[in-house]
Amino acid sequence: MTTTREETIRAFLTGAGWSEATRQALAGDASTRRYERLSLNGRPALLMDWPSGPDAPAAAGRAAYSRVAHLAEDVRAFVAVGEHLRGLGLSAPEIYAADIAQGLLLLEDLGDDVYGTLIEKGAGPAGEPLDELYRAAIETLLRLQSAPAPAMLPVGNGETHVVPHFDDGVFRAELDVLLDWHFPVVLGGEATARQRAEFHALWSDLRPLIDAGPQTLFLRDFHSPNMLWLGARQGAARVGVIDFQDALIGSRAYDLVSFLQDARRDVPPSREQAMRALYVERARSELPGFDEEEFLAAYAALGAERALRLMGLWPRLLKRDGKPHYMAHMPRTVDYLRRNLAHPALAALKVWLDAHVLGALP
Question: Is the pTM above the cut of 0.90?
Answer without folding.
Answer: yes
